[in-house]
Amino acid sequence: MSYNRETRNASARPVVTGLQTRSASGEGGSSPAELRGIIENINRTFGEFRSQNDQRLQQLEQRGSSDVVTEDAVNRINQELTRLSNELREVETRSNRPGGSGTGNQDSPERVEHRSAWDAWARRGAGEHELRSIERRANTTLVPEDGGFLVPDTVDRNILDILGDQSTVRSLFTSITVSADSYKRLVGLHGTGAGWVGETDARPATNGPQFGEAEASFGELYANPQISQRLLDDSALDLESYIGNEIALAFADTEGPAYLFGDGVKKPKGLFSQATSAQTDKERPYGTFQALDSAAANGLGANSAATDRLIDVIYSTRSVFRQNARWLMNGLTVSAVRKLKDGQGNYLWQPSAQAGEPASLLNYPVSDMEEMPDVAAGNIAIAFGSFQRAYQIVDRMGIRTLRDPYTNKPYVGFYATKRTGGVVLDTRAVKFLKIAST
After folding, report:
1. d(Cα 418, Cα 182) in Å, to the nearest integer?
2. CA atoms of 96 and 94, how far apart (whole Å)
3. How far apart are the C-alpha atoms of 421 and 266, rounded to whole Å?
């Protein structure tokens, strides 16, 4: 069948003993020429893929099987497409990274004072009482008296910037920062009644609106980067940037899977750990996501059946959520759907046409995310919808640090903790494709 879519709008990081520190900004930005070159390679390779896969499909129709040479060629080119797509994503991420998060003259005298006192404490362990006094004067309740010190505001912002840049999972969702250890929000379940009346008819009361309460589940992340005392004594080291980068990269490695699959025990309860049902939006209870079974057991199904089921997933999603919708799957699943065609012989998957524009499936962008499960019985291998409308990350304001110069001499450890969680917003906004078992 043809498809016509509507118009739409952790662990400690390695010890560092010299000035060659790791930066979240990688090797720097990328030129437009580099981006264009990769996109041209992707489109050229996809042309080769189409030719070989068409030959494979023709062999399947004529003989019931394809020859080994054709299958190998299709798989080889498919792997090259995946490699190029990953390279494009990495280069685009590198290009979009901010050069820094400093605020220059916009910082208040209080913030400058706190930053200077924190730097002295972090480098030499000096001025602990002065730093505590500064935080006390600021009336902060974010850190208890025996709970370490808040990182400077510039470091806090830098960590959140890097997390947003490094964590592909975090970029899927909206986020909010709160000052309390809990977060609840009312969710409208609609239900207000209405009726037809004549000019002089009585107007009896109708049903009022219904509300549900959504509560975020929190967990505490930690990182414990180690720095040699000699390096701390070197004034050339930008300590704020170094510690901020190390903490952010450690957090990014750990928090992403929790936002997707966390079980809610000492960590957030992730999007894919919520209750699911085959029932439609009008039938499901609040707090339950709809999961559609794949067209065949243990896989996506044959070409036409798999295509039809992907279209079912799209149109089981309300139009208001389709406006900013995208697909979510891992690279192996992308390789599988890349071979699918509609009834007119058009490939469902199309490569990126320009920098900043992702590849698409049935005209919706595809997020290739390695954390997603493979195509196997019982797995939710594909999701579709407006993820920003479905789930929200909740960050507790402030990152605490404890300085430990004793445990791992001659290195100084900076034990940092951050509370973060997640909350479901609207279970109608995203649909799951679950691989059938039978």
Report:
1. 14
2. 6
3. 10
Sorted by sequence, the CB contacts under 8 Å of residue 140 that are 6+ apart come out as 150, 398
Does CATH place domain 11-26+97-190+208-438 in 3.90.1690?
yes
Minimum mean pLDDT among 41-45, 107-111, 285-289: which range? 107-111
Predicted local confidence at residue 140, as pLDDT:
44
Specify whether the CB–CB gap between 236 and 19 falls below 8 A: yes
In this structure, which long-range contacts are made by residues 346-349, counting pairs with CB atoms below 8 Å and at least 24 apart in sequence?
346/2, 346/3, 347/50, 348/3, 348/307, 348/310
Q: How many CB atoms lie within 10 A of CB 283?
A: 10
Cα first-last separation, the chain: 25
Sheet strand arrangement including 288-297: 275-277, 288-297, 430-436, 380-385, 326-329, 364-368, 360-361, 349-350
Which H or E run contains 404? strand 400-404
Is the CB of residue 172 less than 8 Å from the CB of residue 367? yes
CA 302, 306, 307 angle in degrees (round to 5)? 120
Residues with Cβ < 8 Å from 99, sequence gap 6 or more? 25
* Alpha-carbon torsion, ordered 95, 99, 101, 106, to 10 deg: -130
Counting every residue written for the chain, the total comes to: 438
Q: What is the pTM of this model?
A: 0.71
Would you say 2 and 348 are in contact if contact means Cβ atoms under 8 Å apart?
no
Confidence of residue 107 (pLDDT cuts 50, 70, 90): low
Q: What is the pLDDT of residue 64?
A: 85
- How far apart are alpha carbons 119 and 114 in whole angstroms? 9
Q: Is the pLDDT assigned to residue 129 strictly greater than 60?
A: yes
How far, in Å, CA of 185 to CA of 216, rounded?
9
Q: Are 400 and 150 in contact (CB under 8 A)?
A: yes
The answer to whether the CB of 246 falls within 8 A of the CB of 225 is yes
**CA–CA–CA angle 428, 430, 435 (5° rounding):** 120
> Is 289:274 a contact under the CB 8 Å cutoff?
yes
pLDDT of residue 181: 76
Give me 20's structure tokens.
């060659």
Would you state the pLDDT for residue 120?
Answer: 72
Distance in angstroms (rounded) separating the CA atoms of residues 297 and 270: 26
- Do 256 and 367 meet the contact criterion of CB atoms below 8 Å apart? no
